[in-house]
Amino acid sequence: MTDAPPNPQLASARSNQRVATIVVAVAVAMVGAAYAAVPLYAAFCKATGYGGTTQVARVAPAARGARTLSVSFDANVAPGLDWTFEPESPTIALRTGATATVYFRVHNRGASETAAVAVFNVAPENSGAWFDKVSCFCFSEQHLGPNETAELPVVFFLDPRLEQDHTMNDVAAITLSYTLFAANDAAKPVALAPQAGGAPPRL
To answer: Is position 194 within any domain?
Structure first.
């Protein structure tokens, strides 16, 4: 009894099926990795301050530090949102460990109720690890009726441990930047970064 000659078409079909299975498996793995990367990246930014991401704190430190830094505030409105947005105090001097409360004034210039969310970052980026927010309007969606004005507070402090971070030795000023987006358009991960030599243009 002789063995049947190999069928080239059958062998090719089986090979193609294996390749297709591998491709599908790789594609599924890549999609899963992409979804997993988003929360992992967000957690990394929150833990390290990477990209100017600020920290969240429940209470202020028990003791103050020795350094005083200048903290400036930058407010922007993205296209598609008919609001005005500005800090009531453009700059403050803040000692490390001391808690500050700064208000931002918002006004809906439209004829109907609209909602917005704020995205934010701090510059320089390495200061994000030491910029702690106790309370911030950026943690929730903001609603304003037609022609309504509101004052939105942010409560924060500069962690005194920044004084042991050698990358902060030459940092004398920090800028907290916000950008307001219409609630259904808030897709950007951080606020518009201030331009070198001045504040970014108002959109």
So the answer is: no
Residues 142 and 179 grouped into a single domain: yes
Number of domains in the chain: 2
Residue of 73, 103, 106, 76 lying closest to 91 (CA atoms): 73
Host H or E run for residue 121: strand 114-123
Say what the pTM is. 0.66
Could you read off the pLDDT of 104-133 as tens digits, one per residue?
Answer: 999 999 999 999 999 999 999 999 999 999
User: At residue 89, what are phi and psi to the nearest 5 degrees?
Assistant: -125, 115
Does residue 66 sit in the same domain as residue 113? yes
Domain that holds residue 41: 7-48
Q: Which residue has the tokens 């988003």?
A: 38
Q: Where are the alpha helices (DSSP H) in the chain?
A: 8-48
User: Which of 129, 136, 189 has the alpha carbon at shortest distance from 162?
Assistant: 129
Task: Please provide the size of the chain in residues.
Answer: 203
Residues 92 and 161 in one domain: yes
Pick the closest to residue 57 from 125, 159, 142, 148 (CA basis): 159
3-state secondary structure at position 130? helix
Q: Residues 6 or more apart from 41 whose CB is under 8 A from it? A: none
Token duo for residue 128: 């994000």
For 150, half-sphere exposure in the C-beta direction (CA atoms, 13 angstrom radius) is 13
Q: Are residues 20 and 110 in the same domain?
A: no
